[in-house]
Write a structure and sequence with these properties.
With 494 residues, the protein is an alpha/beta fold. The chain is built from 14 helices and 27 strands. Bound molecules: adenosine-5'-triphosphate and magnesium ion. The site of magnesium ion has 2 residues, from loops.
Length: 494
């Protein structure tokens, strides 16, 4: 018989280690017993408002203790949470609520005014917590194949897609990570990434599955992070590149304490200068590769390889597999670039209401990521770029990320984006969009020269455009498809 059920995660955890701390948030702490009791009460309040098992319910909340309680309350009664990004515009949020066909929206009190004209019921946090709690019908057993959450992709390559995460996806993501990083009783994970992203939500799931305390911040602040790492005994922290840059800057001449054992870096490519700066400050960085669809990282590089395998995202976690395939579907050989395909119990079973995308992206259990990369002889993954951003110039493949990484290493460059523009001779050629640091005076010629020293000639951008700001989405990811819109308003020093 195949085991597909498990006890409800939070209820089980509160039974196993009730007195252990679950969350530190500002001056407040909650033990697992208290987290369960509060979530149980909120589950009864949700039920009192007519929220039912198996419904999709939108959630638009900030990083806060109450958010954790509400997210677990939904899990306790088997409601599928459509977790929305509170940095999006109203238009984008409404698009996602309509796309998901959510039956209601639970939101922050101060967002009510903005969202009150939705076609579905809008429930503020205050209203939810004021309802008399019924005794909730608990989902005592979860089915690992059932959907637990829906999260939208960042929308970097087009419209966002609602990724279905089953309980099993979250379970295996937490297990895969523990098998990789190990887990001890003294571990504490700092969550200053948003709970509405898989990066943040996956920390909640790890907390309950491992019995591990988390420290929750409303948002990221480098000094506060360093302070809590020192004084709250944080051992692990999830970061994206910009956060790590700021930590390294804020450290000045100091170092992080020895108990801090892992900065788990995800979300996008890690520029080499950043990795080198971390090495110099002895910040233990675990590079990783993953996407919303893989319920957090699927590939990780341990720090002992950070120099010998500089730039690699590592090897797939124990329960997961990756392959590189060529255009004709054949497997690539070592060092040969192709599309990264992934498989594993942490990989989504598909997208909400999008059978067309499921058909396009899944083949015999393998998800086609749309990312290009290669494996070296030892099986370490190197991510090159997204397939949709690839520039083909005179038959040569050019990866914008590689050029951007070189440009970002220039001390006068604050931000850089590269895209292909049409060219009579070569089909396409790379063009660079540059945001200079304050008071920088570098010229196009000097930047070209700098690129020539670091890149093959055909990869050096043919033109440079200087601009105030690059187009980025709510996750701060560069929207390369929108770079050419800047041509009008940028200036070039020719
Ligand atoms: P959309 O799917 O809507 O276009 P998105 O892919 O940016 O948005 P996410 O799921 O947040 O949405 O991001 C996952 C993507 O981030 C990966 O598919 C990959 O392109 C990029 N990424 C993640 N880790 C790395 C890495 N280590 N190196 C390079 N790229 C990475
Ligand atoms: Mg994607």
């Amino acid at each position: 018989m195949q085991y597909e059920t498990m006890p409800n995660f939070l209820k089980k955890r509160a039974f196993l280690t009730p007195e252990r701390t679950a969350v530190y948030f500002n001056e407040q702490t909650l033990s697992f017993r208290e987290l369960y009791e509060n979530s149980y009460q909120a589950a009864g309040q949700l039920q009192g408002l007519g929220v039912k098992k198996n419904q999709y319910i939108g959630v638009l909340l900030k990083n806060h203790l109450d958010t954790i309680v509400i997210l677990f309350a939904l899990q306790l009664i088997g409601v599928k949470a459509v977790i929305l990004n509170n940095r999006l515009s109203k238009k984008e949020i409404v698009w996602q609520i309509n796309d998901s066909k959510a039956a209601a929206l639970i939101l922050e009190n101060d967002l009510y005014e903005m969202m009150q004209d939705l076609e579905v019921p809008v429930i503020t946090k205050d209203r939810l917590f004021a309802v008399t709690s019924e005794s909730p019908e608990l989902l005592e057993e979860i089915n690992l194949n059932d959907v637990c959450t829906v999260m939208y992709t960042s929308g970097t390559t087009g419209n966002p897609k609602g990724v279905l995460h089953t309980f099993g996806n979250h379970w295996w993501s937490a297990v895969g990570s523990a098998l990789n990083l190990g887990y001890t009783d003294s571990d504490r994970w700092l969550c200053s990434v948003p709970l509405f992203h898989i990066s943040g939500y996956s920390i909640l799931m790890k907390s309950v599955i491992y019995g591990m305390p988390i420290i929750l911040h409303e948002s990221f602040d480098a000094d506060r992070a360093i302070n809590d790492i020192n004084n709250h005994h944080v051992t692990i922290m999830s970061v994206v590149g910009t956060m790590l840059y700021r930590i390294v800057d804020a450290l000045k001449d100091s170092k992080l304490p020895n108990h801090f054992r892992c900065a788990l870096l995800g979300g996008g490519p890690a520029p080499l200068p950043l990795l080198e700066a971390c090495k110099a400050k002895e910040v233990p960085v675990f590079q990783s590769y993953g996407m919303t669809e893989t319920a957090s990282q699927i590939v990780t590089l341990a720090p002992e390889y950070s120099i010998t395998k500089l730039g690699s995202a590592g090897k797939p976690l124990f329960p997961s597999q990756i392959k590189i395939i060529l255009e004709d579907g054949k497997m690539a050989s070592a060092k040969q670039a192709g599309e990264i395909i992934v498989k594993g119990p942490n990989v989504t079973k598909g997208y909400l209401n999008r059978p067309d995308v499921i058909k396009e992206k899944f083949d015999q259990g393998w998800l086609h990521t749309g990312d290009i990369g290669y494996l070296d002889e030892e099986g370490f993954l190197f991510v090159l770029d997204r397939r949709s951003d690839l520039i083909i110039s005179g038959g040569e493949n050019i990866y914008p990320a590689e050029i951007e990484s070189v440009l970002l290493a220039h001390s006068d460059v604050a931000d850089a984006g590269v895209t292909g523009i049409n060219d009579k001779t070569w089909g396409q050629v790379p063009a660079a969009f540059i945001v200079l640091r304050n008071n920088a005076h570098v010229t196009e010629e000097e930047l070209k020269q700098f690129c020539l020293e670091n890149l093959a000639k055909y990869k050096v951008p043919k033109s440079f455009y200087f601009t105030e700001k690059l187009p980025r989405n709510a996750a701060k990811k560069l929207l390369r498809r929108k770079l050419s819109d800047l041509l009008q308003e940028s200036w070039n020093h020719k």
